[in-house]
Amino acid sequence: MNIADYIEHTLLKQDATKEDLNKLLSEAKTYKFKGVCVNGNYVKTAKEYLKDTNVKVVTVVGFPLGACLSEVKAFETTKAIEDGADEIDMVINVSSIKDKNFEYTQKDIETVKKACGNIPLKVIIETDLLTKEEIIKACEIIIKAGADFAKTSTGFVKNGVGAKVEDIKLMHETLKNSTVKIKASGGIKDREKALALIEAGALRLGTSSGVELT
User: Fold this and answer.
1) Backbone dihedral region of 187: left (phi > 0), alpha (psi from -120 to 50 degrees) or beta?
2) Which of 89, 134, 153, 201 fits a disulfide with 162 by CB distance 3.0 to 4.6 angstroms?
3) Which of 47, 151, 164, 193 is catalytic?
4) What is the pLDDT of residues 3-32, one digit of tens each?
5) Is 151 annotated as catalytic?
6) 3 state DSSP class of 100
7) Which one is catalytic: 89, 108, 148, 167?
8) Exactly one of 47, 122, 164, 183 is catalytic; which is it?
9) Tens digits of per-residue pLDDT, 105-116?
């Protein structure tokens, strides 16, 4: 197994500098990672740097809370794609899941998916904030909404664990008869955990520790 094929090398810190970005992009190019995941303001720079590689440029919308209007998420998505984003990672409206307003949750995802067109959409469900039942429901809604991936975490939940093997197994069980894939993210800092998440069903790994995992 080439673990680099699973890794989206990630830089989403609020205080990330151009120096941090250049280091991330250089590492992604050197190690031939699957992709990089950066904030929207860095999409153009990342796309230009990686234009002669197979490294995908991934960006986040509605990040990190997922609480902005669906139309705002859609606008972010459209702009990101114009700037060169290859994939979009949106944050689910966690409150709508908690309130059992599942129709809103689905429409929120569908609005962003429409803006994506043929660009793959990953939906961050923030597993640290959900019960097992809510994780299952979120995955079922993602299937109905036509998204391409369910993703565990933003990594921004205070005292959050991020990706857990048990959650990946639960998501995999829920999604196994669909076309929806799984991205594990948050707290993936060593190769042992990374391999366990892949074995549990993750097809992508979002991590800022990509070099250490290879």
Assistant:
1) left
2) 153
3) 151
4) 999 999 999 999 999 999 999 999 999 999
5) yes
6) coil
7) 89
8) 183
9) 999 999 999 999
